Structures are given as structure tokens and as C-alpha cells.
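FIELD: query
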Amino acid sequence: MNEPVRKVVRVECGVEHAFDVFTSRIDLWWPRSHRRFEDSVMLLEPAVGGRFAERTPAGEEVRMGEVVRCEPPHAISYTWYPGAIKDPTTVDVHFLDNGDHTVVEVTHSEGHSGLGDAWPQRARAFAKNWAAVLPAYGSVVSGAFRVTPDGKKPS
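FIELD: result
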């Protein structure tokens, strides 16, 4: 098995809030530049069998993966079909409570994708993309703005 991509971000909030924003509020932080469709809505349902998907304004839904493990607020794992691959890669996310902040560790592995010798090249692209996506998450969850229970920016 090839080496996975590992990324870490520290967020200035409790573990429950960090988990909730990463999962149920993914649409607030997932960068528009890293979506397939303009003005789409991202979904990551925090339950085993939950969808990892992108929904277009017209209502078309592209399923990008499925939650295979969910242990709120400490861990979530989901499959991901990035690009034109037959079988999915795997993303494992751990939320480590450190008192006044939470450390979020993302491990993106080859999973069952069968990428084999193609994994190192794909892994470089995944590493670059996670390097853009995780700071967006960190900015939202740490207080660039706080989100209210309905998912909106407070006034």
C-alpha cells in the first residue's frame, strides 16, 4: 500500500463545533474553486451510509462518496471517487480535543481505488488540494466568522 496524504489543521474551538462544521456545514467552508459546479451545495452527512455529495442549483446530485465510519465528535471516514476512477479512495478525519482548541487530522489514502503505481502522482494533487481546502475550513471554524445553528453568518 502506498503512503497516504496527511494534513493537520488546528482550529480555535471545541471538538463538537469542529466536527459539526466539518460535516453538517461543509457547504460553508468547502471552497467554490474546488467544486465541480458553480453555485452547488456540498453535503457530508455524519452517519454511516451518509452521502458525500454535491448538488447543483437544478437539483442534480453527484454522489462523490459515502460515510463508512462515524464517531461524533471524534472521527469520520468516507469514501471518495475523485476524478475518473472506478473504485474510491478513503478519507479519515480525526478531531482531537486539546482544551481551548481542536486538532483536525485528515488522512487521504488509496483505499480500494486500485491506483497502485498511479497513487504517488494522484497523492501529490490531493496534497495540494487539501492544502487549499483545510485552511478554508480552519478560517470558518476558528472564527473568521462563527456560524449560528441555522448555518448562517451572525450579524
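FIELD: remark
Residues 5-144 form a domain with the Alpha-D-Glucose-1,6-Bisphosphate; Chain A, domain 4 fold (CATH 3.30.530.20).
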